[in-house]
Specification:
mainly alpha; Four Helix Bundle (Hemerythrin (Met), subunit A); 76% helix; 0% strand
């Protein structure tokens, strides 16, 4: 009878151990699945935020270029200057809203790259509106800086999202601004 009781206790303990092992395994598996889903969900939101932010920066820069070229007589625009300024102000406002999403979702490196990009973008805006003085060469340098800052932001965002590869370096040579050839003195 003692043997039967010990066999029964061993069987009960084995069943309990098996049940506990199954429970713990299922718990950890489910927890990992939920964690992966959260990471995937946040990565999707980050990607959307990063894409929107760069799009807003570029929109503001392109409007600044249009305003600057109009003000300097390089390429007059059909729209009056006050309207161009209003469009630029609205673009800057939307860029600021997109930046706030970066502040909420991004890692430290991406946030710092976004701060640097904002500073470079504002320098372009300020010269376009006449808040800061500068030559055409200064203007071009500021535009080069903003597009270099965009590339730096891209690198930080790619790293944050776990994307392999690079948008700069030996495989990707530096590219300059796409500029029309300089005008000759008799050209108009």
């Amino acid at each position: 009878m003692a043997l039967d009781t010990s066999d029964q206790l061993l069987t009960i303990l084995a069943v309990l151990l098996g049940a506990m092992t199954t429970y713990v395994t299922n718990y950890w598996t489910e927890r990992q699945r939920i964690r992966r889903e959260l990471v995937t969900r946040w990565d999707g939101k980050k990607l959307d935020a990063y894409e929107n932010y760069v799009d807003r920066v570029r929109a503001a820069v392109f409007l600044a270029v249009e305003l600057y070229e109009h003000r300097e007589g390089i390429r007059p625009c059909d729209e009056p200057e006050p309207q161009l300024r209003a469009q630029l102000i609205d673009a800057i406002r939307l860029q600021g809203r997109a930046f706030e999403r970066i502040m909420l979702l991004a890692g430290d490196e991406v946030i710092e790259a976004a701060h640097d990009l904002n500073a470079a973008s504002r320098a372009v805006d300020w010269q376009a509106t006449g808040k800061t003085a500068g030559t055409l060469d200064d203007w071009r340098d500021r535009n080069r800086e903003v597009f270099a800052a965009i590339n730096t932001f891209h690198e930080a965002a790619r790293t944050d999202l776990g994307v392999s590869g690079s948008v700069t370096g030996e495989s990707h040579p530096n590219r300059d601004l796409l500029l029309p050839p300089a005008r000759q003195s008799g050209d108009r």
